[in-house]
Amino acid sequence: MTDIKRSRNTELWDFEKEVTTNASESKVIVGVDGGATSTVCVCVAAPHTAYFHEPPPVLARAESSASNRNSVGDAVAKLVLERVLSNVLEKARRCRSAVQAVCLALSGVSSADDKQCFLEWLRGIFPANVKLSVHNDSLAALASGTLGKLYGCVLVAGTGMIVFGVSEDGKTAQAAGVGPLLGESGSGYSIGQHALAVVMRAHDGRGPSTSLSKAILQKLELSSPEEIIGWMYKDYSWARVAAIVPIVKACASMGDPEAVKVLENAVEELAGSVKAVVERLNLAGEDGQKSFPLVVVGGVLENDHGWDLCSQLVYRIKEFCPNVQPIQPKTEPAVGAAMLAWYSIS
Amino acid sequence: MTDIKRSRNTELWDFEKEVTTNASESKVIVGVDGGATSTVCVCVAAPHTAYFHEPPPVLARAESSASNRNSVGDAVAKLVLERVLSNVLEKARRCRSAVQAVCLALSGVSSADDKQCFLEWLRGIFPANVKLSVHNDSLAALASGTLGKLYGCVLVAGTGMIVFGVSEDGKTAQAAGVGPLLGESGSGYSIGQHALAVVMRAHDGRGPSTSLSKAILQKLELSSPEEIIGWMYKDYSWARVAAIVPIVKACASMGDPEAVKVLENAVEELAGSVKAVVERLNLAGEDGQKSFPLVVVGGVLENDHGWDLCSQLVYRIKEFCPNVQPIQPKTEPAVGAAMLAWYSIS
Fold this sequence. Notes:
2 copies of one chain form a homodimer.
Chain A: H1 2-6, E1 28-34, E2 38-45, E3 58-65, H2 69-72, H3 74-92, E4 99-106, H4 112-123, E5 131-136, H5 137-146, E6 152-157, E7 161-166, E8 172-176, H6 188-204, H7 212-220, H8 226-233, H9 239-242, H10 245-253, H11 257-281, E9 293-297, H12 309-318, E10 325-327, H13 333-345
Parallel strand pairs in A: 1-4, 4-5, 6-9, 9-10
Antiparallel strand pairs in A: 1-2, 2-3, 6-7, 7-8
Helix pairs in contact in A: 5-13, 6-11, 10-11, 11-12
């Protein structure tokens, strides 16, 4: 009861009064993937083995809005996180005392201070014996592709963009992950923003005309490029700019040179970020021929029948590490976070 | 009295109760230059001639914070504007009834709807016989260089960036002026943001190392590039990013290749924006040899003993219009706005 009182949003945990603990039920582990567009939380059964041979089945899943602290602020991020945590346990009919471990994998969280801040907050919600961990979301994405083994490189290109790598001897390196205002070319936000800038340039004569203009105005339900200005500054959330990416891909697949340029630039920047991490960790070995896993995830890399950005990217990356093993995970990053939670116990 | 009641911030105008109208005093005109970093308001005597042969002397001057609606929002913009208006008249010891004309020249205001919104608000503050006008700030900058004649081209490169042109037959054209998120390369914000991105790239290996890193960290009083992330997202005001420009110029003048690249890119973008307007209005004539005034203003173009961006820019512009007449105004844009106010009467 003490721990429940420490929670700041007590009403979220009211359901626990009605949950009767069944001794035959195994304990659970919880993984959270907090991004700049949405937050996903899964509850999985604690496995009977030390290692995962396949992704664990999901007992319950909850989804909510963005929890990137740089995008929505600390207070909103924590409220969203506590909501998905209570929501997933309510769906799984488990009290917090039935939880063995929780892992938060959060975009926008990089430094030790950032992690400590969320860890202390999480400590106020769960009983003291629950094993807690906080990582950058890229780590959960890596784990989702390697079944929890922390080795290789992961590229997350969603609303934001980050490359994270772990060498065989446990050294780590990161590139990008700095948010859209500090140069994350290749992220969904950046692609959307570049496309909007291209439309404004076409409008005032700084750049050539492009089919992006009509397509984007239609998508945003606006009647002239000037109206994009009001649209852009009325709401600073990053996700709505990233939502333009499929339009850019569609225009590029129809051959629009400006749209193709935006995407080719994104490929170049994404490949350059992977290269920076691979070189710093020497993942491809001295001769550049060594094989290592490269997990690729995020909306920008999804094949949505437009311009195939992912294939172009892999092609470009193989120029500097030909034996890289690209992996598109079969499970979502939140399950990767749950696997990390499990390994934090064992 | 009726008009005073219509004002929403009555206390700002309390001073009027103590101002005694002196019949011998001439009427005044008021000009406001509202930018994304600061707002300047001047009160000048209405001239005895129809045209200005030199900038009118300033009776009173007031300065306040940013009033760019896209940066601070409509409510803050209007409060800042009403404050500088009351402040300048208090300093000049004039009631609103002594004002012949007011011109607001505002950055972030482009469309007819934008102007109408501020015009209606202004109408609620001044007596009905005061002539009111609202323009984009670039028009006041042009007027400050041409003594009120609306012909030629103006480039404003401050925190934001805009190019505005007026042809001899009164046609107008604009380039950029879309705010920093929609592609205003060459603005102070954009230069600062690019420099910060260069520092982040140097830090994680995506780009070469640069003297910008140490210089910018020192300026921001931070100890590592990672801290730039927290600094960037804790406050979205544009002016503090633009304040990095002098550091970039200093590093470039010491030969740092990355700093030089950021500024050369800015020059290219500024020249391209001028070119777009000059071509649309045919300001340089069919043979490109015609002379026309090009007023250049804004902090980015000031010669602060670093890398001389303005000279580089003029050199680049003369490649496509060799007989352009660059003008660095002797008076500030707010006085240009006052001159526009005067011409709106006559």
